[in-house]
Amino acid sequence: MQGPPPPPPQKQGTATWLIVLLAVGIGLVFVVGIMAVLAIYGVRKYIANAKQAEARNSLGQIARDAAAAYERESISPGTPDGLCASASRSVPASASMIRGMKYQSAPADWQVDASRPHAGFACLGFSLDMPQYYMYSYTAHGTKRAHDGFRATANGDLNGDGVMSTFYIEGKVGPGDELAVDPLVTEGSPGE
Predict the structure, then answer these.
(1) What is the pLDDT of residues 9-41, one digit of tens each?
(2) Range of 54's domain?
(3) What string of H, E and C letters represents the secondary structure of the chain?
């Protein structure tokens, strides 16, 4: 008489393989998580740099416009000599209008000083027709003597925390009555 049949042989290693697969899966999730964090950081940095390019490009254009206006006014008879006078207000008029958001200026914002002879953004011929992240201002001291000059400034609050970033470019009249513009935009807390 035979007893019950012997039990089938057990598959060795099935549990081991399951543990290995689980460990690999957890490792992959961990690696993908780290890559996602790095990608998010990179994209945020890229977006901030793209927004900061607005300030750099606009200030460069204001500086070119100031130099062109200075040259135009210096050689045209019957026009005031020298630099365009300071803008009476920035565009937009308040930093709260660009806190964490864009501002859409109107053509009139840039023409506020049109009634003043040889002054502000109207004299420079500068304006923006696209929505902007920064508040722009232009100040001049003097007109055409050595050490007179101008400063164009862009202030922004990209993250809306109330801390402002500052970008500016300057130009100075030299001893030979030539206007020298700084080649670089100076930046303070550009990521704010």
Answers:
(1) 665 667 788 888 888 889 888 888 888 888 888
(2) 35-188
(3) CCCCCCCCCCCCCHHHHHHHHHHHHHHHHHHHHHHHHHHHHHHHHHHHHHHHHHHHHHHHHHHHHHHHHHHHHHHCCCCCCCCCECCCCCECCCHHHCECCCECCCHHHHCCCCCCCCEHHHHHCCCCCCCECEEEEEEEECCCCCCCEEEEEEEEECCCCCCCEEEEEEEEECCCCCEEECCCCEEECCCC
